[in-house]
Structures are given as C-alpha cells and as structure tokens.
UniProtKB/TrEMBL annotation:
The keyword Transcription regulation applies. It comes from the Bacteria. It holds the Pfam family MarR. GO terms for biological process: response to stress. GO terms for molecular function: DNA binding; DNA-binding transcription factor activity. This is DNA-binding MarR family transcriptional regulator. Residues 3-141 form the HTH marR-type domain. Keywords: DNA-binding, Transcription, Transcription regulation. PROSITE patterns: HTH_MARR_1, HTH_MARR_2. The keyword Isomerase does not apply.
Length: 157
C-alpha cells in the first residue's frame, strides 16, 4: 500500500472510531450526560457539604462551552441524576453533585460499557489488543509531538 493510501485509510478508521454510536447502548441517557455522571461520581457526596464538580471544570474536560454543560445539567436535574448548588466559597460558581438515582444510572451505564468492551476484547484477543494499544499510544505520542511543532510556528502549509 502506498503512503498516501495508508494515510487515507488511517483517517477513515479514525473517523469511523470517532463516529461510533455508543449512545445506542444506553437507555434514557445521552453520552454527554453519562460523561457528566462519570465526572461527578468521583466527587464527594452533596450531603457531606464537600466540593462537587464545577461546571467550568466539566466544560473544559468535555471540550464544550459552559452553557452547553448547563443545558445538559438542566435535563439531568429533571431526571434526578444531579443537583446543583451555588459554591459557598465563590457564589459566581456552581457545584454539581450526583444523586443516588444518578449514581445508579452511572453504575448501570458503566456495566453496559464494561460488558461491551469485554466482548470486543474477547473477539480481538488479548495479544492483538495489547499490540493495538501499544501501537496506538506510540502513534498518539508522535502525533502530539508533531502538533506541538506545528503550534510553535513550524507550519507546513
């Protein structure tokens, strides 16, 4: 296969991976909502009076705007997955806490994804998965390095 053909095939595969519709496996929750539950699940519970997850922090992790996260949170409050509270230390900020209903949904989704991954890994085989992971991480390292060069003014085009 020619170098250009390999490049095109790689980008086609990356496009397919990015556009896998994982939300079809979930019931009554979007992938974005699931990501928020995942981010909140490691935070201390609301009842403890501890810090929850910040809206701005979630937006940064998800690479979306804070208003986009706020829209998701509004729907999640209606489903009783999360509660929002004004930050006691800085009233300009909002903290987000997972509820028991949200924790149950997060655990259900996590189990669905674990079972899916287990089936995929089973079909691929451990050796193939380890080789793929190794090569993928190696490629990502090179790609990140090349992007840094480009960001520093080493423009090709």
């Amino acid at each position: 296969m020619e170098n250009k053909e390999i490049q095109e095939e790689m980008f086609r595969a990356m496009f397919r991976l990015k556009h896998l519709n994982m939300s079809g496996m979930l019931k009554d929750i979007s992938i974005g909502e699931y990501k928020i539950l995942e981010m909140c699940s490691g935070c201390p519970a609301f009842d403890d009076g501890e810090d929850g997850a910040s809206v701005s922090g979630m937006a940064a992790q998800m690479r979306v705007s804070a208003p986009a996260v706020s829209r998701l949170l509004k729907g999640m409050e209606g489903k009783d997955y999360i509660v929002r509270q004004v930050d006691a230390k800085d009233r300009r900020n909002t903290r987000v806490f997972i509820t028991e209903t949200g924790r149950a949904k997060q655990e259900e989704c996590c189990e669905i994804f674990q079972n899916y991954t287990k089936r995929v890994f089973g079909r691929m085989g451990e050796d193939n998965m380890l080789q793929l992971l190794n090569l993928f991480n190696q490629m990502l390292g090179v790609m990140e390095d090349e992007l840094k060069k480009t960001e520093k003014g080493d423009r090709i085009c």
